[in-house]
Sequence to fold (277 residues):
Amino acid sequence: MTKVSLVGAGGKMGCRLTDNFLKNPQYDVKYLEISEKGVQNLMERGVTVSSQEESIHDSDVVILALPDVALKEISAELIPLMKPDALVLTLDPAAPLDGVIAHRDDLGYVIAHPCHPSVFNWEPTEEAFRDFYGGITAKQSIVVALMHGTEAHYALGEKVAQDMYSPILHTHRITLEQMAILEPAMVETLAQTCMEVVKEGYDRIVTLGVPEAAARDFVLGHLRIQIAVLFKEVNGTFSDAAYKISKRAKPILFQQGWERIFEMDDIRQQVRDITNK
Fold:
């Protein structure tokens, strides 16, 4: 039985992982949490909170389900307590890329992050369809990277990740740098920012008098087909007028050279902004 310490078990991500570990009797899990709200979340699940003294030294895997800004301090406290050849499993590439997680040569380090269910993910039930984050009933893919250690460390990290993020569609092995290109650069710096601007535009047209229900249906419907066309989910194209107007709009909306967000020097600055308090 694999012994796991889940640090931050009562937080936003921690609770989702806790719920899945409770379904997996193959793991002997110790749940660590210090915040009052987090402890309450675990109590509601019938989970007993453990201390680091009774869990970290004996764990095969220590999962750091913590905010990026907390990882430097807490990893410096916990990682010296781990047994040799154990695995440190983190959930986001920012802190590992920034080098703020405490390092030991005799440990393995794996990063595993969920892709979340695709906008085109088909699910047979309403409950699964509305599992937007994944990890409950909707299938999702995951990306996994080995930062330090052996292939055995990677295999263990991948297996734990598949179970804690299940149900899984695909598992993609990538590098730490590639994961940072995906997040934060692609999905946060670019995609989330663009979606925030779309939402600001939506709010603006509602204030101009467009009925909100009509605006919502129109915008979300068009977003779906636009994504389908661009990512080749459908054999179609936009109209000539749509291509013409997007060509006009791009230099108005985006600064020249915005693509530099995918250069590693810029990505390292992005993760520094994330990890610093």
